[in-house]
Design brief:
It is built from 14 helices and 17 strands. By secondary structure, the protein is of the alpha/beta class. It has two domains: 138 residues, Alpha-Beta Complex (Aspartate Aminotransferase, domain 1), CATH 3.90.1150; 255 residues, Aspartate Aminotransferase, domain 2, CATH 3.40.640.10. The strands form five sheets. A seven-stranded mixed sheet has the order 4-10-9-8-7-5-6, sandwiched between helices. The two termini are 38 Å apart.
Length: 414
Amino acid sequence: MTTQDSIILPKAVDKLRDEFPILHQEVNGHPLVYLDNAATSQKPLSVVESITNYYLGYNANIHRGVHHLANLATEAFEKTRKKLAAFLNTPDQREIIFTSGTTDSINLVAQAWGRMNVHSGDEILVSMLEHHSNIVPWQMLAQEKGAVVRVIPITPKGEWDLTDLNQLVNAKTKIIAVNHVSNALGTINPIEILIAEAKKVGAKVLIDGAQSVVHFEVDVKALDCDFYCFSAHKLYGPTGVGVLYGKAEVLEAMAPYRGGGEMIHTVSFSGTTYNEIPHKFEAGTPNIEGIIAFGAAIDFATSLDKDFVQSHEHELLRYATEKLSSIEGLKIYGESENKVSVISFLVDGIHPYDLGTLLDHQGIAVRTGHHCTQPLMEHFGIPGTVRASFAVYNTIEEIDMLYNALLKAISMLK
């Protein structure tokens, strides 16, 4: 960063923070320092207001109505699909399927694609860095089909160890399901390598993008993956809403795994025909206001200057790493040079829950535990970590507050 950037940046962040009223409060008599962004981001006023506007102005069910409110709701709902297609860079809006979140998206693929294509002896490849939501659905499928789940190991720095890549990706590999960014360590994974290898053996690739899209741009056409998914609530949007991108030809060959309204073309007791994509995977009345708010979140995210976001978050990560590394007995897990603004750490002799509790007493919100990555924690031989995750609205001053709170907490627990 230049000297000029360092002068402009704090002013830009202060202005940005005005969009998030929740940040301007006290917790336990201290200013709130919200550093749990990898769990869920805070929501700008525009997202909150979009939900209120829907309920006060045009609350109606979508697609099936012909009246004025139904048309308004349908238009706003489908506008989000258009925004997401542009956000992920696919010209085909049919490739955008609304789900309840990343977990739901992965389960959709495991059931609707996996049950048709995975058979006894086939292999499903995941990595040691996966969230439980990208492990358990594949274990369930493998158990049902007699398939095998194989695991990409990691290095001490928390990066994929691709030394035996030719053995990991082979003729038996049916699908590779990996995250773009590790939620526990912040590592940005070289997914392009696995996508290229998958093509050599005819395997499909699903990318869990829950932790990536808030930090950098994602182009699914450039990646050429088969599936990409993420949740709205990680990207300034509401909970309970997510998206699955899938290549049209792959989605068209898949059968729906949920039955009900909307996903059908015709229904009779002699037989049922299914709707076209994306609707055949969107059974029932969806979270309409949530998806409309998802669109508002996309608007907010795309309004931010990408260079500003990346430079500011990089500086937060650099500064926090430097400050926390200076604390005696503190160990950082996940030391990749290619990572997003996440720091997971432990302090010798102190349980992460105890540390997190004392930080909360000082207004510092961090995540403690295994972060839904129990296999990863077992690999490191630890019960969990304290995770501080930074967003574009966080400040250098907040990192100083975290540092000082840590010193105080450690002195009380030692």
